Amino acid sequence: MAASGYSDLREKLKSMTPHRDDYKNKYADGTSNGSGKGRKRKYRESDDDEYEHSDDSAELREQEARRVRSSILQKSIFTPEECALIEEKIDEVVAKGEAGLYREHTVDRAPLRNKYFFGEGYTYGAQLEKRGPGQERLYRKGEVDEIPSWVHELVIKRLVSNGVIPEGFVNSAVINDYQPGGCIVSHVDPLHIFARPIVSVSFFSDSALCFGCRFQFKPIRVSEPVFVLPVRRGSVTVLSGYAADDITHCIRPQDIKERRAVIILRKTRPDAPRLDSDSPLSSSPAERPAPLKAKRSHRKADPDAAHRPRVLEMDKEENRHPSFSRHRRHSISSENYWRRGQDYDKHRESSGRKVKMRRH
């Protein structure tokens, strides 16, 4: 080797394959000709190298998490005894829905999740004549059942007396009933339909509300959240400002480990669009569907058995990607929080900022 001018075999091999270094330098920064084009990354030395370049992204995510956290109010208002009474009433709603005693648009069924609309209902997701955010429409008045009296007496009055919402704010109540493994994909509550804030109360079990996730299907997967908000049984969650308008929120399948129900209380905007009377989705307010035929109910089966592989797969994915969100308890004055939410709405109306939303 000395005769060939090389004292180390590695030097000789390197001289014989100079293109390897060129290839490495060519794609390490994601460029092919120094012009900034072709940024698809084709070379990665190691996971550690990638981690070193993720500091900026982590900082941005942490900033966004702080913005989300600062625009959320949470309170523990309902005692376990009060929760048990309200949960009995929710069971009665489910039984009436199964018996076909509600108007057609009051009940919306999906795998492992049923929705019950009261006061006001609206089209969304696959129900839309034209797909996409901003296409949601309220049904005509009277096409969903009125808000049950127990919701007013046991839930809304408590929130008013605790300063969470003002008297007369709520004209729409939705009950979401989840079975283990159920979910709602990432979305923003339609800005042209609902005023802010968005108020929800949780029952039956603890869960979590996630912000900034992306869903993929077949198999179902959820990206790492920007922020994870634990929601306890009996807790009240109020979304306004950034958390309500500028980032999506969702319920992930792995966060519903037991049956859980949530009552969502909102106010529709006075100028919210409604379906035309001749719309195919619109029916006579007086019409009620015939009682539902007896069918198999997922409630009678073991829901964990069918969905355990899906949940475990997502749990493994979650463990591979540590969350950037940090759960810190915080308190915000209700009065200041409400005023800030109103100021935020005025700012949005003047700025006209558009928000990308997902179907839900």
Automatic annotation (TrEMBL):
Enzyme Commission number(s): 1.14.11.53
Region (Disordered): 1-62, 271-360
Organism: Stegastes partitus (bicolor damselfish)
Pfam families on file: 2OG-FeII_Oxy_2
Catalytic activity: an N(6)-methyladenosine in mRNA + 2-oxoglutarate + O2 = an adenosine in mRNA + formaldehyde + succinate + CO2
Name by which UniProt lists this protein: RNA demethylase ALKBH5
Gene for this chain: alkbh5
Subcellular location: Nucleus speckle
GO cellular component: nuclear speck
Residue span, Alpha-ketoglutarate-dependent dioxygenase AlkB-like domain: 98-255
UniProt similarity note: Belongs to the alkB family.
Gene3D superfamilies the UniProt entry points to: Alpha-ketoglutarate-dependent dioxygenase AlkB-like (2.60.120.590)
Transmembrane segments: none
InterPro entries (UniProt xref): AlkB-like (IPR027450), AlkB-like_sf (IPR037151), ALKBH5 (IPR032860)
